[in-house]
Each structure stands twice: as C-alpha cells, then as structure tokens.
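Dataset card, provenance and construction

Sequences and ligand SMILES were collected as paired inputs. For each pair, a complete structure of the chain with the small molecule in place was predicted and serialized as structure tokens. The example below shows a pair involving zinc ion. Curators did not alter the output after generation; any descriptive sentences attached to a record were derived from the structure itself.
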Amino acid sequence: MTHSLALISDALHVIFHLPVIVVAIVVAYLLRKNYNQHKLESWGTGIIATMILGTSVWIIVAACYRFSNAYIVQTATMLVVAIIGLIGNFVQLKILKDKDNHSTTHSLINWHFLFDLISSVVLIMAAVIIQFFHGSPIIDPIASIIIAICMALLPIQSLWNLIFKKEITHHH
Ligand SMILES: [Zn+2]
C-alpha cells in the first residue's frame, strides 16, 4: 500500500503542472503587452525554473521512498498510473503547444513534459518487465531517479544563468 501511495504521489505531480502553466500563460500575455521585456522574462524564467525544479525534487523523493519499499510490487497500479500520466501529459503538451511563443519559460516546461512522457513510457516498460520477466522491482525507482536528474538539468542551467550571468538565452 505504501508502495503504491509513493507511486501515486509521484504521478500526482502533474497537478502541480497547472500553476506552472498558469504562470507561463500570464508571462506570455504580459510579454505580448510589451511591459519591461527583459525584467519580466527574467522573473518568469526564475519562478518557472524554481517550480519545475521543485517537481524534479518531488519525483526523486517519491522514487527514494519507493526504492526503500521496492519489495512490494504492484504492477497493476504501476500500469494504471503510467497510462493516466501519459494521457495527462499528452493533453497538457497539446494545450501548451497552442500557446507556445518559443520563450524560455516554454522551453523549460516543454523540456519537463518531454521527461514526463519518457518517465510514463519507462514506467509501463518497468511494469511489464517486473510482471512478465520477473525483473527486479528496483528498476522503476532507479529509472525514475535518473529521469528526474535529467529533468532538473535545464531548470538548474536557467537559474544558474539567471543568477550568475545575468542573462537568459532565448530563441526569438
Ligand atoms: Zn511533470
């Protein structure tokens, strides 16, 4: 039970996508209104990079918890969570794609969603391997931690640039 709770809390981070998307849409709207562009984009990137980084940390914590409880395997729960996550991410990626203005904030979110998608696919594969090929249940938390670390790279780089280089790269 605790194992599937950790798994579900990991998947529940998709709810945290909503405030991130709201902030991104507000920033994109204000940028179109042509307020202080550079300052606004710096603030937007800082806030969104921090929020996105927070979800990576959340995933790592949930995966560590699963790692310590890995002997209890519930492949059915894994499959359900992965498939719901996959559908949820496809929908959110589609919503964001329509609003995409190629800003730094959108690159950060797209990057995160890409790894969410990879994560759902890996979770499905892990469930199949554990169920049908008697694979070790630690495959799933190990894969989750690796994916979450990759996921954290772009927000860390953005924050680093923001703090130490006082500029952000953008694709205008
Ligand atoms: Zn996510």
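Derived descriptions for this record:
The radius of gyration is 17 Å.
The chain has a mean pLDDT of 78.
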